[in-house]
Write a structure and sequence with these properties.
By secondary structure, the protein is of the alpha+beta class. It is built from 2 helices and 4 strands. The chain is globular and about 25 Å long. The two termini are 18 Å apart.
């Protein structure tokens, strides 16, 4: 598997997730990343909604608590 940039959201407040993702994908211009969410259902929902709102394709890994996102 290719090594992707990792964006680890562990320890972030839910209110900071969208700004963190915007910073990574738009300001740092990251095209592909593994977004690590942990097992929080609420965090996963926020991340999925942000991807959809910003038209970023993603794949949710079933064997670990993360997503592969690409634009």
């Amino acid at each position: 598997m290719k090594n992707f940039t990792k964006i680890d959201l562990h320890g972030l407040r839910h209110a900071d997730i969208e700004a963190t993702l915007a910073n990574e994908f738009f300001w740092k211009n990251i095209k592909e990343a593994e977004v690590i969410t942990g097992n929080s259902i609420k965090m996963k929902k926020i991340v999925k909604n942000w991807f959809k709102k910003n038209k970023i394709d993603y794949f949710e890994f079933t064997n670990k608590a993360s997503f592969l996102a690409y634009q």
